[in-house]
Design brief:
Blueprint lengths: L6 E7 L5 H12 L2 E4 H10 L6 H10 L5 H17 L4 E5 L5 H11 L4 E9 L2 H13 L9 H23 L4 E5 L4 H14 L1
Parallel strand pairs: 1-3, 1-4, 2-3, 4-5
This protein binds P1-(adenosine-5'-P5-(uridine-5')pentaphosphate (UP5) and magnesium ion (MG).
Length: 197
């Protein structure tokens, strides 16, 4: 008797590429559980007495990446909670973002999850930045939706996250979607992937 392993789709793409928006659509139509690493970190930061709150906030504002022990721990806990109620299909949004994340995931979760594929939302820097600034101006309350943080988020994405996407692409795990269209246009492409697999 062997316990079933959870299925995981990593969802990657630049800041504002539309990862969260499309994950919500996938949840509605395909019954996955959406775990945004960024959302989990922001929630942890808000917890009273959280020892890592200040550390998380300093990374978010600087657009740098929180040590994997923290992020992977939050992800594993959230997965375990959901599996208690028989939810085994996960969209892990915004992770792994760098080599530390990738190595940490493989160490901690490598044998405990079945990676289905990597969903990559491809979007130009200009469009990414514009979407985040627009969201900031509309009152997102996110401490990183400002021009200075965005510059850093883009640099981190290009220097640290793109190599992770390339790493998975080398083993044909990446499914790339053009994320520059309207949310409906993008979802039409996303749907095809989930209907097939
Ligand atoms: N929007 C969405 N789709 C659109 C479309 N097709 N056309 C027009 N507008 C569209 O969308 C962003 C905005 O654009 C929204 O206003 C939306 O309505 C609109 P969203 O769906 O939120 O995009 P998303 O890709 O999720 O953007 P997000 O800002 O969340 O991306 P990031 O990857 O930058 O943010 P995340 O929350 O993942 O991470 C934030 C920080 O947390 C990181 O910089 C890092 O410091 C830290 N972090 C870690 O350290 N480790 C992790 O593992 C994860 C995060
Ligand atoms: Mg997001």
């Amino acid at each position: 008797f062997k316990m079933a392993l959870p299925n995981v789709v990593f969802v990657l793409g630049g800041p504002g590429a539309g990862k969260g928006t499309q994950c919500q659509n996938i949840v509605q139509q395909f019954g996955y559980v959406h775990l945004s690493a960024g959302d989990l970190l922001r929630e942890e930061r808000r917890k009273e007495g959280s020892e890592v709150g200040a550390l998380i906030e300093s990374h978010i504002k600087a657009g740098s990446i929180v040590p994997v022990e923290i992020t992977c721990g939050l992800l594993e806990n959230a997965m375990k909670e959901n599996m208690k109620s028989d939810r085994y299909d996960f969209l892990i949004d915004g992770f792994p973002r760098n080599k530390d994340n990738l190595d940490g995931w493989n160490r901690q979760m490598g044998g405990k999850a079945n990676l289905q594929f990597v969903l990559f939302f491809d979007c130009s820097e200009e469009v990414c930045v514009e979407r985040c600034l627009h969201r900031g101006a509309a009152g997102s309350g996110r401490s990183d939706d400002n021009p200075d943080s965005l510059k850093r988020r883009i640099v981190t994405y290009n220097e640290s996250t793109r190599p992770i996407i390339e790493h998975y692409d080398a083993s044909s795990m990446v499914k790339k979607i053009d994320a520059s269209g309207s949310p409906d246009q993008v979802f039409a492409e996303v749907k095809k992937l989930f209907t097939k697999s």
